[in-house]
What we know:
The complex is a heterodimer.
Chain A: E1 5-7, E2 10-14, E3 19-24, E4 30-38, E5 45-50, E6 56-59, E7 62-67, E8 72-77, E9 86-94, E10 102-104, E11 108-113
Parallel strand pairs in A: 2-11
Antiparallel strand pairs in A: 1-3, 3-8, 4-5, 4-9, 6-7, 7-8, 9-10, 9-11
Chain B: E1 4-7, E2 10-13, E3 19-25, E4 31-37, E5 43-50, E6 56-57, E7 68-72, E8 75-80, E9 89-96, E10 105-107, E11 111-115
Parallel strand pairs in B: 2-11
Antiparallel strand pairs in B: 1-3, 3-8, 4-5, 4-9, 5-6, 7-8, 9-10, 9-11
Amino acid sequence: ILNVEQSPQSLHVQEGDSTNFTCSFPSSNFYALHWYRWETAKSPEALFVMTLNGDEKKKGRISATLNTKEGYSYLYIKGSQPEDSATYLCASRAGGTSYGKLTFGQGTILTVHP
Amino acid sequence: SAVISQKPSRDICQRGTSLTIQCQVDSQVTMMFWYRQQPGQSLTLIATANQGSEATYESGFVIDKFPISRPNLTFSTLTVSNMSPEDSSIYLCSVHMGLAGSGELFFGEGSRLTVL
């Protein structure tokens, strides 16, 4: 994988459903993986920054896992709420150093229907 | 954390004109980053603005098209010159807080430009 790829591109779920998205990234020279939530007309907001293989982070109903050897991360949302509707972006920092370029995926657009 | 004010929030521009976007941060930062998201595309880094030196541009972006100023440690501007409809995008400025590389990015609310 040469670029950061996210799937699905968009997702519609009902309130209360749990959902997950995938971020695939180049595993060579990996440094860090970022997840952001971007609500319409607002600033993208950082959810997680992950660096270690096997890392799992959680913030409320949202959690993320990281596999640096195979180059993927999952973002999970438990019991989706309408306020979770947003575009979820992942970004990989490569180059093996803290100053490597941050490359974003195209995002997953989540719509949670009441 | 950082609070970033960006303006304009949106504008409709005519082909061939130029527009300057301003970005103000509530704390001093060494580097400020300018991103662009074209419709259906990824958020793409245009350039890194360094105080006291010329901006560093990513492949595919040039200073003549996207001149950047960085007069102090809290402010930067990005100009989109000689606009065409392909420049219709959301432009975001951002800063990095925390340990370099492992810290998160903070973003402005974006400037949504439509070029007719």
